[in-house]
Amino acid sequence: MSKKGLINGYPAYMRESIEKVNATRARRLKEGPPPPMTPEEREAILKRSHPDYKPEGKRKLAVGPSAGEPVPHEVADLLEAHPVIDPKGIDLSRVDYDVDVLVIGGGGAGTVAAIFAHEEGIPVDRILIVTKLRHGDCNSIMAQGGIQAADRPNDSPAIHYIDVMGGGHYANKPELVRALVTDGPWIIRWHEEMGVMYDKVDGRYVEAHGGGTSRMRMHSAKDYTGKETFNAIRDEARNRGIPVLEFFPAVELLLDERGHAAGAVLYNIETDEYRIVRAKATVLATGGFGRVHIQGFPTTNHYGATADGLVMAYRAGANIIDMDSVQYHPTGVAYPAAILGQLATEKLRNQGAMPVNRDGEAFVFPLEPRDVESAAIIEECWVKNKGIETPSGIRGVWLDTPMIEAIHGKGAIKKSLAAMWTMWHRHDIDITVDPVLVYPTLHYQNGGVEIDANGATRIPGLFAGGECEGGVHGKNRLMGNSQLDYNVFGRRAGISAGRWAKKAKPKGLSLRHVIEYEKALDKAGIKTDRRAPLILPDYRPEDVRKRHLEVI
């Protein structure tokens, strides 16, 4: 018994359930997991229990190029908000930075885009990366499980294509999926040239399944894959000397008099000043919306994931696609409260950890597509009432992590899942001995700004890559395709931006589109004091925020 009244990290009443999990483990190891669901069963459980299918969680947009499209209320609140700046008060005659290619976002897609704009012949002093926080404060570096690429003899980009389309419920844009899967093997080779150390045995990649995949094509670097790949990419950009402005989020895109992308208005978080960047081409790589907490879910996302690029692009006239779909990772941490919502990587399940209920019963195939797996866990907790409730009122199911050691031998978790072991060990929980409590957590923005296969939006001169763009994953993303997405479309957007910049000649700078958007809000009868982009989430209680505003 610890000083906190816990037994090896868990309260006594949870221990009673853990004993049931321990007692059924040998049988489950012998029998194996439940079989995968049929397509009909998957569709049925999604409609019954997945948050995307709750009609009260969405509304149709009233303004903008995608008016009439249903999106989560939290997204609509951002898109139907006022700008954070007064466009008439910004002096566009004073240009602070004049570049060929402006990259908005310092995560994976943005850094890759800058590298390939340089590869396209744009000098480094004519490229500028601007980022809200530090270079590398992003979801890309936090990714754990791996990156998909079809490079085995029994696999092919065509088979990968079928998996991606099926996982996305065939809502994906086919040309984007084709680009994703055909570029995959090349991306892995490029990473290795830069020094990425993927897991290998006897010189061959160690590859595994992800949920919804028909072949083992998941390349990983233990469970630090995002960190390993992004560090190599960032080092490449730094070695080339590509400039980066940190703590400088963009708050509005600039257009020229023809409606072409022409740069951005930046906001310096540290000095509370605005700066103007004029650019011949702009790449949007601002990531997703996890910190908006769709339907109140906790999130795996980094602190700056507030859909800023989505807001700016939409206001400037870009289409959005598949924004009615949200990815909830099936296994977010449900206990302890200090790490609520953090990621329990899918690699735990592809190595053998089985989701089980409070009685130690397996209830779902461990590697269903993420939306199906999430729906099954939600249903087990709230419909069948077979979850475990934590002291803070959260419900979850057990992920039987000791099965990994039973299958692969003692020491397997510390060898291939060191980040997972460390995360729980800090809270006195040994995942080699005890299961962990999990529940779906907001993980990924499936949709986003619509692009073509070259990363181009409908706004001439504006390109996008990574989580802020949409169309690649349809209504559900498969594990490992986010890492591939930011590399493939970051590269394609960077190449396209470089080529565009060589011939582009911006004619004046304008924020007229922002003024017109304000008029559209008024015409639609939208009355709100909300402003967007959000830039950073505010977790203070309402009464504290109110007192703060009154003081100001």
Low-confidence stretches: none
The oligomeric state is single chain
Gyration radius from CA atoms, angstroms: 23 Å
How much strand content do the residues show? 15-25%
- Structural class assignment: alpha/beta
**How helical, in percent, are the residues?**
25-40%
Biggest pleated sheet:
7 strands, mixed
Task: Explain what the structure shows.
The protein is an alpha/beta fold and 552 residues long. It has 16 helices and 24 strands. It has helices at 12-31, 39-49, 73-79, 108-119, 157-167, 174-194, 225-240, 308-316, 347-350, 370-382, 402-408, 412-416, 418-425, 481-503, 512-523, 542-551, and strands at residues 58-60, 70-72, 82-83, 97-104, 127-130, 147-148, 200-201, 204-205, 207-208, 218-219, 244-245, 250-255, 261-268, 273-284, 320-321, 327-333, 354-356, 388-389, 395-400, 436-444, 448-450, 462-464, 469-470, 531-532. The strands form seven sheets. Strands 4, 5, 11, 12, 13, 14 and 22 form a seven-stranded mixed beta sheet that branches. Strand 4 (97-104), helix 4 (108-119) and strand 5 (127-130) form a beta-alpha-beta unit.
